[in-house]
Specification:
Number of helices: 5
CATH architecture of the largest domain: Roll
CATH topology of the largest domain: Nucleotide Exchange Factor Grpe, Chain A, domain 2
Structural class: alpha+beta
Radius of gyration: 49 Å
Coiled coil: 40-74
CATH class of the largest domain: Mainly Beta
GO cellular component, one term: cytoplasm
GO molecular function: adenyl-nucleotide exchange factor activity; protein homodimerization activity; protein-folding chaperone binding; unfolded protein binding
Shape: elongated
Keywords: Chaperone, Coiled coil, Cytoplasm, Stress response
Distance between the termini: 123 Å
Pfam families: GrpE (PF01025)
Largest sheet: 3 strands, antiparallel
Helix content: 55-70%
Length: 200
């Protein structure tokens, strides 16, 4: 209706100068299509939505990256920890068996002074060979005997004081006077403390 009125006014105003084609073009210029406006608005909204979706995706990607880095660090720590534990297990795998054999070594140490008094040299040599073989076999598995002698400082990390006696001299006060039972270490771990007498 509006287009018809506009068409009539333009036709009446400039009958001689404007052709019908020009009038139609004028009408089209004057009357903007609302569908075009809606399409432009929709396109703008879609661009805004796309931008916001991109931002959301970027945030999600950043979160995933952070989570991946945390998981990677945790897994790396887990690998290192299990590797250390495995090495420790290998080091002390024979701990129970070796600990059970320590009294046998003690018996050899107590018996040897009496056996060496025997006139049977073959017996003495045979027992010494057995003792040495046992000690060397256990040493090959990582067993280390602690060397404790009179005058050493008393060390609670290595020694166990079974008694205290008056020090024979001033320089032995608070120090080891005698070692009653040999202590042993398996690799770097103490499996039996050296039993010592401490001067006071």
């Amino acid at each position: 209706m509006r287009i018809g009125k506009l068409f009539d006014s333009l036709r009446g105003k400039n009958k001689h100068t404007m052709s019908e084609q020009n009038i139609n073009e004028e009408i089209q210029d004057q009357n903007i299509n609302p569908e075009v406006q809606n399409e432009e608005t929709t396109a703008t909204e879609e661009v805004v939505e796309q931008k916001s979706e991109v931002e959301v995706l970027k945030e999600e990607l950043q979160k995933e990256k952070e989570q991946y880095l945390r998981l990677f660090a945790e897994f790396d720590n887990f690998k290192k920890r299990t590797s250390r534990e495995r090495i420790d297990i290998f080091k002390t795998a024979n701990k129970e068996v070796i600990t059970a054999l320590l009294p046998v070594i003690d018996d050899f140490e107590r018996a040897m002074p009496q056996i060496t008094k025997s006139e049977d040299t073959a017996l003495v040599t045979g027992v010494e060979l057995i003792q040495n073989k046992l000690v060397e076999t256990l040493r090959g598995k990582g067993l280390i005997a602690m060397e404790v002698k009179a005058g050493d400082d008393f060390n609670t990390d290595l020694h166990e004081a079974i008694t205290q006696i008056p020090a024979p001299s001033e320089d032995l006060k608070g120090k080891v006077v005698d070692c009653v039972e040999t202590g042993y270490m398996l690799q770097d771990v103490v499996i039996r403390y050296a039993k010592v007498v401490v001067g006071m």
